[in-house]
Amino acid sequence: MRLAWSRGVPLLGSSANQSLSGSKYKLADVEQAVRDEADLVIDYGDTKYSHPAGMGSSIIALPSLKPIRKGIKFDEICSLIAQCFGTDPRAVT
Hints:
The protein has about 90 residues and is mainly alpha-helical. The chain contains 3 helices and 2 strands, in the order ααββα.
């Protein structure tokens, strides 16, 4: 993250689940077929932002900043983007 931030570029990651299969918060819940494709699997326990009702991540399109999905920490993410880049995704339609 430090390298991405210092270069002014976004950092992207995979959800580690099969499409339309729901959010996964524990390694044991990730489909075996997905785990079999990894070169290295490390189980650090539940994810930091686990949600008891299974709420997914927030998705904001780049470069438009249009919200695609309002999920975990949506307001905090929008506030950070507004503070750092001068555009609040909550105001983008």
